[in-house]
TrEMBL record:
It comes from Desulfosalsimonas propionicica. CDD domains: HDc. SMART domains: HDc. Pfam families: 7TM-7TMR_HD, 7TMR-HDED, HD. The chain crosses the membrane at residues 16-37, 326-347, 359-383, 395-415, 421-445, 466-485, 497-518. Residues 547-704 form the HD/PDEase domain. This is HD/PDEase domain-containing protein. Residues 756-800 are annotated as: Disordered. InterPro entries: HD/PDEase_dom (IPR003607), HD_domain (IPR006674), HDIG_dom (IPR006675), Metal-dep_PHydrolase_7TM_extra (IPR011624), Metal-dep_PHydrolase_7TM_intra (IPR011621), PgpH_phosphodiesterase (IPR052722). Residues 764-776 have a biased composition (Basic and acidic residues). Keywords: Membrane, Transmembrane, Transmembrane helix. Residues 777-786 have a biased composition (Polar residues).
Length: 800
């Protein structure tokens, strides 16, 4: 089916998911609302402590105010009333007594062993046997020393152990130790008595470990510190140990002192827990300000209490009202953005090319415009109040460069996208001026005209001229507004004109300054950058000319073809031309593997398998993308390099592979480019021009009719292969493209007349008087050695 007879073409467009759309629009709405109402984040009162009130201030409603200072004081008092908790370990006495008894019982059991056979009581034994028995007994007891120390929990000297050995570890010794320990620990031993005595005025809570019983103790001096407890061991033990041997007394006292441990310890975590609970139990202390109650009188100095009242009124009254207005504003912004997206942006090819990135860019520009407007309004109001001469803030509003947002969008995405965003931005900016209709109208008209005049600006000087033109237009617009509002005072009109002109100039300056940042941040390429890249002296193009001259010549012709065709179908001619120049830069890596760069009839692919040749051809797309990224050519050019072959078939090597493998199936997908298919008009033009230009070189005797048939055949083939399904080309566009290609190619390959030359004797031209399109014999024999040496014969160029 011939595509030039069809009336429609289906175009697939990538759809942006609903969640991403809602997310971006919701984020833009939230940020814009916060810009319009910054007090949602921080509520400030117009006064500070120590200022003088310039008017009477009364409470507009009943307000409850929390007395923060009184509340904190009450909470601290509640914390201070909580007594410090100490743990009393009453089980420590029994633990120590058990250890002492067990430690002494082990060596004592050795002494209490019954005598061996033949050594019963009353039976005389020899002295040697008796000595042996005593030695064995001593050895057994000393073998228990380590176990004795481990059980008791303290280390003892050999001398002390000898004393115990002589006393045969009498049960009286552990009994005395336990009695002294019991009396000392029953009184209570604290680890840090100095810390304990700090609570002497209020007392402490003594909590029994295990049972959880608690007592309020006020006499804290009764408890021993660890040093006092050791001293009390000797004092308490003196009457108990009276009459005993001196060394044994010292040993019992020493053992007892070393066994004494604190059984009253501070429970810090429990104390803090109770204090936190007591603090939380205190409710905020509130007092009421009645409606109509005088908060401040004119001329009074503002105290901390007054400030507290003003802040409470601002938070409880003003914030609720502010939240209501902010919510309404946010809903208005969201609805406007959603309607604009659904009606104007959703199906735009500029958005469909990169939906999330482009929508994020538009949201960022709009939010930035709101931020500039908000800052400018605040600055204008502040300056008007501080100036010594009268200057109305509304004059300075005309100098806000709001048109820069529409101009920036137009520079990167065209007027058709900039127009609806300019309308939305102007309408919403009117909220900053208390819904002033005239200000919204002013910003709407000047934004639209700024975008309209900047749509073809390719140089910075063009943008400056546009800014000056916009400034003059603003002056005329302001004059009309003043006539409508009957504001005809000379000073006011002069200042209005001044700031209106500044607004136009500053809009162009902002556009010039922001454009490079947008290029880097969102992957755009401006016309200024494209003009630089279109210069054939660029490093990549010079490399292409020197290292791959055939590809260079092909790329230049493709650039000319797509530039002419782009003008016919409303695409970007400059972008199309640059994409045509750079679409084959990947061939720089292996230039001799491509036929246009081969010389002397040597084709490298004759020695390679079709699959390998196919991989080499396909690789030039990947290599081109890498080169484009390394040289920062821009996302549009990178996309053109990646998409200019789409998923087309390398038919020559596919057919060659089928011939070589007659008995084996050949996977056609291995001989297709990876894609994707062209997504934009410019990329589709590069695909078509690339195929047409390469094929046109093979036409013998290229006449207009042959070129026309070739162009139509190739475009039909590309269309039938579904390579144009994802780009926004229509059948009408394809007709214009074909006509443009035919016109350019016919001009390149037009017929030329034969130059007159002197016929040689016997030549066909001499005989028949006509040319047979063959070289004359005189030129065919130019390779002969004798020919070069004849006088008057031109020497062959390029040879030594």
């Amino acid at each position: 089916m011939n595509i030039f007879q069809r009336t429609d073409i289906s175009v697939k467009k990538p759809n942006l998911t609903a969640w991403i759309v809602i997310g971006i629009l919701a984020a833009a709405t939230l940020v814009s609302t916060l810009i319009f109402y910054p007090k949602l984040i921080v509520i400030q009162t117009p006064y500070q402590v120590g200022d003088i009130a310039d008017e009477n201030i009364k409470a507009a409603r009943d307000v409850f105010i929390e007395d923060g200072r009184a509340t904190r004081k009450k909470q601290q008092e509640s914390r201070d009333r909580v007594l410090t908790v100490y743990d009393h370990d009453v089980s420590l006495i029994d633990q120590l007594k058990n250890r002492v008894n067990m430690a002494f019982a082990t060596p004592r059991a050795v002494f209490e062993q019954p005598p061996a056979l033949g050594q019963q009581e009353g039976v005389p034994v020899s002295e040697a046997v008796e000595n042996t028995r005593k030695l064995n007994l001593r050895n057994q007891v000393w073998e228990k020393k380590q176990e004795f120390e481990k059980t008791l929990g303290i280390s003892i000297s050999n001398g002390a152990y000898s004393i115990l050995f002589n006393e045969k570890f009498s049960p009286k010794i552990p009994e005395l130790i336990n009695r002294i320990l019991t009396e000392v620990l029953t009184n209570g031993v604290v680890s840090n008595k100095e810390l304990l005595l700090r609570e002497n005025d209020r007392g402490i809570v003594l909590k029994t470990v295990g049972s959880g019983n608690e007592r309020h103790i006020t006499n804290l001096r009764q408890f021993y510190s660890l040093d006092q407890a050791k001293t009390m061991v000797r004092i308490i033990g003196d009457p108990m140990l009276k009459g005993m041997e001196y060394n044994l007394v010292n040993l019992i006292v020493d053992f007892t002192q070393r066994l004494v441990q604190p059984n009253i310890t501070l429970n810090k975590s429990e104390t803090e827990k109770r204090r936190d609970a007591a603090e939380k139990s205190i409710k905020p202390i509130m007092y009421q300000i009645k409606k109509g109650e005088m908060i401040l009188r004119e001329g009074e100095r503002i105290s901390e209490t007054d400030m507290l009242k003003l802040q409470a009124i601002a938070h409880q009254g003003g914030k609720k009202k502010l939240l209501g207005k902010a919510l309404g504003t946010g809903l208005i912004i969201f609805v406007l953005l959603m309607v604009t997206y659904l009606i104007h942006l959703r199906h735009r090819p500029e958005i469909a090319h990169n939906p999330s990135g482009r929508l994020l860019f538009l949201a960022a520009v709009m939010v930035s415009a709101f931020l500039i407007a908000q800052v400018s309004v605040s600055l204008a109001v502040s300056l008007s109040e501080e100036m010594t001469y009268s200057l109305n803030a509304s004059c300075m509003f005309y100098g806000i460069p709001l048109a820069a947002g529409a101009m920036i969008i137009c520079q990167f995405m065209g007027f058709s996208v900039a127009f609806p965003l300019a309308v939305v931005t102007a309408l919403l900016t009117g909220l900053l001026f208390e819904n002033a209709y005239l200000m919204s109208l002013y910003f709407l008209i000047n934004s639209v005209m700024g975008a309209y005049w900047s749509r073809h600006c390719r140089h910075r000087r063009d943008l400056i001229k546009t800014g000056a033109k916009l400034g003059l237009f603003n002056m005329a617009l302001v004059a009309i507004i003043n006539i409508y509002s009957l504001n005809l005072g000379v000073p006011e009109i002069f200042w209005d004109w001044t700031f209106a002109f500044i607004g136009g100039i500053s809009a162009s300056i902002v556009t010039i300054g922001v454009a490079p940042l947008v290029e880097m941040g969102f992957g755009f390429t401006t016309d200024s950058t494209l003009l630089e890249l279109s210069n054939l002296d660029q490093p990549l193009m010079r490399r292409l000319m020197l290292e791959a001259p055939g590809t260079y010549h092909h790329s230049v012709i493709v650039g000319s073809l797509v530039e002419a065709a782009a003008s016919e179908i409303g695409a970007n001619p400059l972008l199309a031309k640059v994409c045509g120049y750079y679409h084959d830069i990947g061939k720089l890596k292996n230039p001799l593997h491509f036929i246009e760069n081969q010389s002397e009839g040597k084709n490298i692919h004759n020695k390679l398998a079709p699959s390998m040749s196919c991989l080499i051809l396909i690789s030039h797309v990947k290599n081109g993308v890498e080169l484009a990224r390394a040289n920062k050519l821009g996302q549009e050019i990178i996309d053109a390099i990646r998409q200019h072959h789409g998923t087309s078939l390398i038919s020559y090597f596919y057919e060659k592979a089928k011939k070589q493998k007659k008995d084996q199936p050949v996977n056609i997908d291995n001989f297709r480019y990876p894609g994707p298919k062209p997504q934009t008009k410019e990329t589709a033009l590069v695909m078509l021009a690339d195929q047409v230009e390469a094929a046109a070189r093979t036409v013998e005797h290229p006449t207009a009719s042959r070129i026309q048939g070739l162009v139509q055949q190739l475009i039909n083939k590309t269309f039938s292969d579904n390579q144009l399904d994802e780009c926004p080309l229509t059948l009408k566009d394809l007709h214009h493209i074909a006509k443009s290609f035919m016109k350019i190619l016919t001009g390149i390959y037009h017929h030329r007349i034969d130059y007159p030359e002197k016929p040689t004797p016997g030549s066909a031209k001499e005989k028949n008087g006509r040319s047979d399109h063959k070289q004359p014999d005189s030129l065919q024999n130019i390779n002969g050695s004798n020919t070069d040496d004849r006088p008057g014969t031109l020497k062959r160029l390029g040879q030594g």
